[in-house]
Specification:
The protein is mostly helical and about 80 residues long. It is built from three helices and no strands. The model has no long low-confidence stretch (mean pLDDT about 85).
Length: about 80
């Protein structure tokens, strides 16, 4: 599984870490019965998804795999001129 490179990008790591902190905050505030603190944790979870998406759009994420011809075959064709 590690050969696929799934999630090994700065965007993925940052988004997951922020969301994990949000889960911890929301869980802690549920235990102490603090509703505003719980919603603050939920906002952190959403912020993690947004930050990860913005970082991916900025080029720090994994490039999507496209179907069709492999890149090596597409470049091997001579150009006509």
């Amino acid at each position: 599984m590690s050969s696929s490179g799934h999630g090994h990008t700065p965007a993925a790591w940052t988004g997951v870490i922020i969301a994990f902190i949000g889960f911890c905050v929301a869980g802690a505030f549920i235990v102490v019965a603090n509703v505003p603190g719980f919603w603050a944790g939920m906002a952190l979870i959403v912020a993690g998804a947004v930050v990860g998406g913005v970082m991916r759009a900025a080029g720090l994420g994994q490039t999507p795999k496209r179907s069709g011809q492999p890149v090596a075959q597409a470049k091997a064709q001579p150009q006509e001129g």
